[in-house]
Amino acid sequence: MKKVGVALVVLLIAAVLAAPYVSGMVAERIVRQSVANLNKLYSEAGQDVRAEIVQYQRGYASSEIVWKVGLGRLQALYGIGEVQLVERARHGFSGITSTTSLEKNPWYGKFIQDKLGGKDPLHITTHYGLGGKITSTLAVDAFVLQTATEAVSVKPGKLVASCDKEFKHFLADASWAGLAVAEKVSVEGMSLKSDLTLISPYVWDGTITFAVPNIRAAKEGERMELVNLKAGYALRFNKEQNVLSGMVDYGFDRLEVGPKKIENGFVRFGVNGVNANAYKEFMTGYTQAMGAVLGDVAAARTDEAAGTKIDEKKMTMVGLQMMAASEKLLTKGLEIRIGDLRVRLPEGEVKADVTLRLNKDMTFLQFIPLAQQPALLTDIFSLKSNISLPQQLVGDNAMLLTPFYPGMRTGLFVKNGTSFVHKSETKDGKLLLNEQEVMLR
Predict the structure, then answer these.
(1) Which residues touch 260 (CB under 8 Å, ≥6 apart)?
(2) Rounded to whole angstroms, how far apart are CA atoms 281 and 327?
(3) What is the DSSP letter of 320?
(4) Which secondary structure element, helix H or strand E, spans residue 51, and what is its range?
(5) What is the pLDDT along the chain (441 residues), one digit of tens a residue?
(6) How far apart are CA 84 and CA 54, in angstroms?
(7) Are 168 and 195 in contact (CB under 8 A)?
(8) CB atoms within 10 A of CB 372
(9) Chain centroid offset of residue 288 CA
């Protein structure tokens, strides 16, 4: 019995001693597979960005990894061809945890030395779990950036982002204390959360929320303050119908510009029923076209003697290609909505809700007959809208109350108490405006 106990103790000690080596070995496989998956993701999205492991030195309890990320045509925007990252990792029982440095990038070192007095405020820590989960924490210390005319005081911030090794599911949680520029501009705090799943290149499903408690600005006696700004984004993919939908909403508690003040502002923009195949085709064409343009921009920067310029004919062709691709998005069920718009002004409250939907597949040319045959409107579109404006805001504006089309029985608005209201909808092949049929024939 004693021998069995001793054997178990020996096995336990051996397992503990072997754990760092084993976790380092497994984590290396995860890291290398993640790089391959990341490059595949960029390639499928039509991007020429590419990550490469230049060096991977794995020891018993630690590893050093040198990365290189080539920015491809994005160099035309940033003026940087590649970014090098050095990770120094410690092996643990559940994976490896690394700290990342940008020390091998001369442009970054110069920026830190010239602009921040040699003190690097950026700290990056990443944990590669044995189960495949990758979690990175990016923290920024407070620092002061001196521009040509102002000193920008940047407050601390933190971002925690995670994903699986396949780069399909992404989570992020960020907070930032804000910034200040003397007495001119101040941003007090910011928070961001996201939960996104990659369905296929260009197609995502998930949500993003964003909030800033307070933004202030002042210039030459004019003062602006925005209180409690919030934004939300939702992306949805319906696999059965193969359609996408997207929604974004913005809201705030108060906006003051000089003596003027508006309160409780909110609006929601939505696009529903987007054909997923047409959307992917559009985005593929857009990515390829913009890649070609960025290539020309890069050539113009590097070949000054030749004086390379972006060809205007090429830009025209890009525009035509995008029009042709966007036409395929005009499918039955495509819906655009401006909803729940509301804001309180000194003159009263404004409200609006407008929804426009395509009843059938269309091309741009098929819209042309509408000018001569307005009766086609109800065949092509479904419309529903409600708008309310305070009379004090618009005054005695007769144009809003007067019919301007022969078939109209009312103006766009009718007076209702102290408000101007508008209501329209298509119903049973008719267009109703303020509950009166508009004669389109």
Answers:
(1) 346
(2) 11
(3) H
(4) strand 50-58
(5) 554 444 444 444 444 444 555 666 777 888 888 888 888 888 887 788 888 988 888 877 788 889 898 887 777 667 788 889 999 988 877 788 899 999 899 999 999 998 888 899 999 999 988 888 999 999 999 999 888 788 899 999 999 999 998 889 999 999 999 999 988 899 999 999 999 999 988 899 999 999 999 999 998 778 999 999 999 999 999 999 999 999 999 999 999 998 889 999 999 999 999 999 999 988 888 887 777 766 666 566 555 544 445 566 666 777 777 788 888 999 999 999 999 999 999 999 999 999 999 999 999 999 999 888 888 999 999 999 999 999 999 888 888 899 988 888 999 999 998 999 999 999 999 999 999 999 987
(6) 9
(7) no
(8) 7
(9) 20
Number of Cβ within 10 Å of residue 366's Cβ equals: 14
Torsion sign over Cα 174, 180, 185, 186: positive
Count Cβ atoms within 10 A of the Cβ of residue 95 and give its class: 0-12 exposed, 13-18 middle, 19 or more buried: buried
3-state percent helix, strand, coil for the chain, nearest multiple of 5: 30, 50, 25
Q: How many residues does the chain have?
A: 441
CB 375 within 8 A of CB 351: no
78 within some domain:
yes
Question: What are all long-range contacts of 41-50, with beta carbons under 8 Å and residues at least 24 apart?
Answer: 41/167, 41/198, 41/201, 44/200, 44/201, 45/201, 45/202, 45/287, 46/201, 46/284, 46/287, 46/288, 46/291, 47/72, 47/287, 47/291, 48/72, 48/73, 48/291, 49/74
Position 96 in a domain: yes
Put simply, whether the predicted model's pTM sits higher than 0.90 gets the answer: no
Domain range for residue 20?
1-136
DSSP 329-393: T--TT-EEEEEEEEEEETTEEEEEEEEEEESS---SGGGGGGGT-GGGHHHHEEEEEEEEEEHHH
Considering its fold, how many domains does the chain have in total?
A: 1
From CA 356, how far away is CA 364, in angstroms rounded? 17
Largest CA distance in the chain: 104
